[in-house]
Design a protein that fits this description.
The chain is of the alpha+beta class. It folds into 3 domains: 117 residues, Nucleoside Triphosphate Pyrophosphohydrolase (Alpha-Beta Complex), CATH 3.90.79; 31 residues, no CATH class; 124 residues, Nucleoside Triphosphate Pyrophosphohydrolase. Strands 1, 2, 3, 4, 5, 6 and 7 form a 7-stranded mixed sheet that branches. Strand 9 and strand 10 form a beta hairpin.
Length: 287
């Protein structure tokens, strides 16, 4: 595993209730319109707003969730009431902008960009679990853990996390890359897919590879993992070696796949994604 591959929240303490402290005014508010985050855009900087600054903008919140403490700064996620958002956003002097979640890296500090993924995950879980999945009654946050409890039958639910695998497959000095029909033109990446009920993570890797590109693999090795809030995944990365078979795409999820030499790789993702780390690790080992 590449020792530089890390996705830490180095100074973030996840909590379900704000602690008592003298200075309660220092806050971050990760506020979203759909999956676009509100950023303050002033003359010299682009930054995450505070709760106070959100209150000064002509938005109201649908609901707010407390996340925890980052360097003793209280962090919140918020779903904005966007019924008047378009008219407000069009004002050139508004001093803010909405930015898609995947474009935050490079605009704000890395820990804040990563924490934005947690924020949108919790926000959407809150929105999607207003009512009990068992009896349909209203739910409310528990005070002692990140969970919701039904007001009627008492059923407790937790934030949904969907495990997914991603694997880089090597054949001597080449890597198997594939493209989905929904990728932008010319984009290829490594194989990924969701873990199904009743199977191990390793079984999911073998199945997804066989289903999507028709080959068998061997020497499966764990590489690392990454929270992937699109919408609620945990991406678990592996490397593997080609064992046998001819590439045969499924024509549904994958429209093309091929072996690429190190100098033939058409696109290398940024290191904000685990696919980028896997491909860069392959290039480093074959340079």
């Amino acid at each position: 595993m590449d020792t530089e591959y890390k996705y830490p929240f180095p100074d973030f303490l996840p909590l379900v209730s704000p602690p008592q402290k003298k200075d309660s005014n220092r806050t971050y508010c990760f506020a979203f319109k759909d999956r676009e985050m509100l950023l303050i855009n002033d003359d010299t900087d682009i930054r995450v707003p505070s709760m106070e600054e959100i209150g000064q903008i002509a938005f109201s919140s649908v609901r707010t969730q407390y996340l925890g403490e980052l360097n003793d700064i209280s962090c919140y996620s918020m779903e904005l009431d966007t019924r008047n958002a378009d008219s407000i956003f069009e004002e050139p002097s508004a001093g803010f902008r909405f930015t898609p979640l995947m474009e935050l890296t490079g605009l704000i500090e890395e820990p804040l960009a990563m924490l934005a993924g947690k924020a949108v995950h919790i926000m959407e879980w809150d929105r999607n679990s207003l009512f009990c999945g068992r009896c349909g009654s209203a739910t409310s946050f528990k005070e002692d853990e990140r969970a919701k409890q039904c007001s009627d039958c008492g059923f407790v639910s937790f934030p949904k996390i969907s495990p997914a695998i991603i694997v880089l497959i090597e054949k001597e000095d080449k890597v198997l890359l594939a493209r989905s029909a929904h990728f932008r033109p010319g984009l290829y990446s490594i194989i990924a897919g969701f873990v199904e009920p009743g199977e191990s993570i390793e079984q999911a890797v073998v199945r997804e590879v066989r289903e999507e590109v028709g080959v068998s693999i061997k020497n499966l090795r764990y590489f690392g993992s990454q929270p992937w809030p699109y919408p609620d995944s945990l991406m678990i990365g592996f490397t593997a070696e080609f064992a046998e078979g001819e590439i045969e795409v499924d024509g549904v999820e994958i429209e093309d796949a091929a072996w690429f030499g190190m100098d033939e790789i058409p696109f290398v993702p940024e290191t904000t994604s685990i696919s980028g780390h896997l491909i860069r690790d392959f290039i480093k080992r074959h340079s």
